[in-house]
Amino acid sequence: MTSSKQEFFENIKQTLCPPGNGVFTVNTAKERKEALHYSLFGQTKNIDALWHQSFEKLPSACNAVMLGIASDCGGGILRGANWGPLFVRSTLLEQHPNLSVFDLGDVRVIPHLLHDKYLNEATLSNCRRALYQNENSTLPVSPLSITEETLHDFYREFPEKGIFGIGGDHSISYPLTKAYLVAKKAQGKRAAIIHFDAHTDLLHERLGIDLCFGSWCTHILDDLHAPNHLIQVGIRSSGKPKSHWEDTFGVKQHWAHEVREEGVNVIIERIKAQLAPESIDELYVSFDIDAIDQEFASATGTPEPDGLYPQEAEEIIKALAEIYLITGADMMEIAPFTDSTGRGQEAVAKTLEVAGNLSALMINEMNK
Predict the structure, then answer these.
(1) What whole-number distance in Å separates Cα of residue 62 and Cα of residue 100?
(2) What are the structural domains, with CATH classification, of the chain?
(3) What integer pLDDT is reported at residue 132 of this predicted model?
(4) In terms of DSSP H, where are the helices of the chain?
(5) Do the beta carbons of residue 251 and residue 231 sit within 8 Å?
(6) pTM of the predicted protein model
(7) Which of 21, 139, 214, 365 has the fewest CB atoms within 10 Å around its CB?
(8) Which pLDDT score, from 0 to 100, does residue 124 have?
(9) Cβ(64)–Cβ(366) under 8 Å?
(10) Which residues are 103's β-sheet partners?
């Protein structure tokens, strides 16, 4: 193993933790975490050691590498997406047991933090002492900062592999996509982002915070070769018309009502026609579960009616995957302890089923 790879693994032993442990708790969800650990490692004791040993398999593992980021500090409407990584993983293991994916673990999340740039030196030192027992460490401490730094190193060491990120609120897609786009440019590849969402996420800031669930897209546009390489599907909750977003930012949008009125095949052909002359090599798919109609996905912070049907989203992903390699993806905003329909566990189970099916589809495409 090269010295740089060894350094990467030593760093993630500090900045990450075993799958499912990204939410630090005492007893809450203990049984669910233990069930996940047993499924992954065959036991519930000495998990850290088994997780560390698993790193030896990463160089020869499949292309799809899973990373959980159990943070909802960048949300702000209805919290609870920090439980997404644990529940989505469990759903994938239960409903897609033959799925091929290497699980890198979870980002270690201090739940009060978002990005290191918002912290003063005293707070950075205190948090480094808490996370790493070393106030003089140079490692980041906030979930967005840890994710971005980890993935810059990951893509340098494993350029042929891709990350499937599980959130968490949608602010997490900022470091996921930024590191991805920087890596692809370094590899001489042109990448586009297909963004499924009920909302545009194109604010400059929200209540003074520039990196959050409502603004992350704005801050990765300069990392694309062209702004229209961000293609948004499922938009329907916006205080401004489609023309405002497309004219102001140069992105391309396909609103949910267009899918419903004109049919998903028409939208697929429009996306293909747009991408055809752009010399796109690879795609990243960022999926906010609220792109799906709340009838099928209500366990989320901002469920919206009149959205996409799960099959429509699947058809779009499959059609694009026939032409372009999908080399990165994420599933965001699953909040399994919430439900806006009053159907309780039935609605949560349906949301997780839909998220699991879509996640499995994207992971399978990444492995191709």
Answers:
(1) 7
(2) 3-366 (3.40.800.10)
(3) 97
(4) 3-15, 30-41, 47-54, 84-95, 121-132, 143-157, 173-186, 242-249, 256-262, 264-275, 310-321, 345-366
(5) yes
(6) 0.96
(7) 139
(8) 98
(9) yes
(10) 66
